[in-house]
Amino acid sequence: MAKKPHENQKTQETIVRFDNVSFEWGVNKPILDGVSFTVRRGMKFTLMGQNGAGKSTIFGLISGSYTPESGIINVVKGVSIASARQVIPRDQLNLSVREFFEKCFKHKVYDIDPKIDDVLEVVNLKGHTKVHDKKINTFSGGQQARLLLASALIQDPDLLLLDEPTNNLDKAGIAHLTNFLIDYKKTVIVISHDAKFLNAFTQAVLYLDVYTKKIEQYIGNYFNVVKDITARVEKENMKNAQLQKEIQAKKDQANVFAYKGGRLRLVAKRMREKAEELEEEIVEVRKEDRAIRPFTIPSQPDLIGEILNISSFTTMKNGKVVKHKTKISLNKNTHLLLQGPNGIGKTILLERLASGHADGEKVKEGIRIGYYRQDFSTLNFEDTVYQSLSSAMLAGGERLDEERMRSVAAGFLVTGEFICTRIGDLSEGQKGLVAFARLVLQKPGLLILDEPTNHINFRHLPVIAEALNKYTGAMILVSHVPEFVKQIRIDEVLDLEK
């Protein structure tokens, strides 16, 4: 059973301490409110919380990228920290591998190539002889995820911060990373929505509550902590329900006595005071993460005949392009699963299909394509959410109906000031929800989805799977999450490796 730290205190040295820390973005956007917790040397933590709660912000505060509004963050002198971010910054995609790793250090590192070779071996990304000069943007999404991890490991930090490290990784990559973390001797904090992955190595959990802006700290593996939190919430809800019953009974009695007048009014007053005392006993229950509302992605109307034909495709093998012949025909209500290991060329094929420039591919004229990219590059990061959704609605052939647009947005937890936020200022999970809202408004005839579970809160995944399962246009899906794929109707499979 998971326990709070004071019940099962560890003896390792505390290397990071948050003491009553508060932080906010801009004006009236609080992220943390009086947060206190400790990180002990050699332990492996999971940092949990809803999309947009501020998990990545906590990493920024630990590493010193951000400064708190109030409170103290104490990192023990001499403790080195390295972060593996969720995505490679856009301004680094044109760097060579060598330049990318050189940026990991404050000072110039001489003869860095052997160090790069060693760390690429650790993340199971073995390159050919010219890998050091290869551009980052030529690597697949899964290979870039391994480069991000390697960029942190090459620094040999005392504290390793991993932000969604399994995104884009294939089964072999996740297994390799899991074994690495199990054997890892230093301190690590991981943000991830992959429960099975987290449970393999987690010793403690930091839960960031998006409503209270507080951190709850637990000792125990991931599954036990989630089980304990759920049980506590149920117990508190039951206690509150009983108190509400008693409060209502006291108020009803008070109303009866007050109506009768005379000395009974004093009795009525005592009844109301008792009701107020009971109201103070109501426990503030931690609200569970909300899931998005069930939704439908409408397909383009009047879809008739063949929507997409693929007669050939190319893959990457040992750094060489290999051409293959195939016979794939997608009509209305046909779902294709595209499979293959990291680096074989899945994302490149999807990009070419979406642009209409793939060899051996033909999309029927007039077909609208809805493209969910794993790096969200189909979104304009300078647009506000309102502008992004408005343009999607117009692209879907609808007039601008603000009431409908806001209703769709609300279903994806995009409400209030969120809708006026710049896309580039959203968390990766929030960008994913906006991307799905755009698909609903676009009404595509061909839906192309490249790793749509990346960055998405696990509570949302069954809802998304059900929407994709019911989609009636033609669909191509790439996903390395078997549990997600199992929930979706697949009519054809194209395995690029086989």
Can you tell me the CATH superfamily of the largest domain?
A: P-loop containing nucleotide triphosphate hydrolases
CATH architecture of the largest domain: 3-Layer(aba) Sandwich
Helix content: 25-40%
Overall pLDDT confidence: 85
Catalogue the unreliable spans.
5-11
Q: Beta fraction of the residues?
A: 15-25%
SS summary, helix count: 14
Radius of gyration: 26 Å
Please report the total strand number as a whole number: 17
CATH topology of the largest domain: Rossmann fold
Domain ABC transporter: 16-235
Pfam families: ABC_tran
Coiled coil: 226-288
InterPro entries: AAA+_ATPase, ABC_transporter-like_ATP-bd, ABC_transporter-like_CS, ABC_transpr_CbiO/EcfA_su, ABCF, P-loop_NTPase
How would the blueprint of this fold be written?
Blueprint: E1 14-24, E2 30-40, E3 44-49, H1 55-63, E4 70-75, E5 81-84, H2 97-102, H3 113-122, H4 141-153, E6 159-163, H5 171-183, E7 187-191, H6 195-199, E8 204-208, E9 215-219, H7 222-260, H8 264-281, E10 308-317, E11 320-330, E12 335-339, H9 346-355, E13 361-363, E14 369-372, H10 385-395, H11 402-411, H12 428-442, E15 446-450, H13 461-470, E16 474-478, H14 482-485, E17 492-495
Parallel strand pairs: 3-7, 3-8, 5-6, 6-7, 12-16, 12-17, 14-15, 15-16
Antiparallel strand pairs: 1-2, 1-4, 8-9, 10-11, 10-13
Helix pairs in contact: 3-4, 7-8, 10-12, 11-12
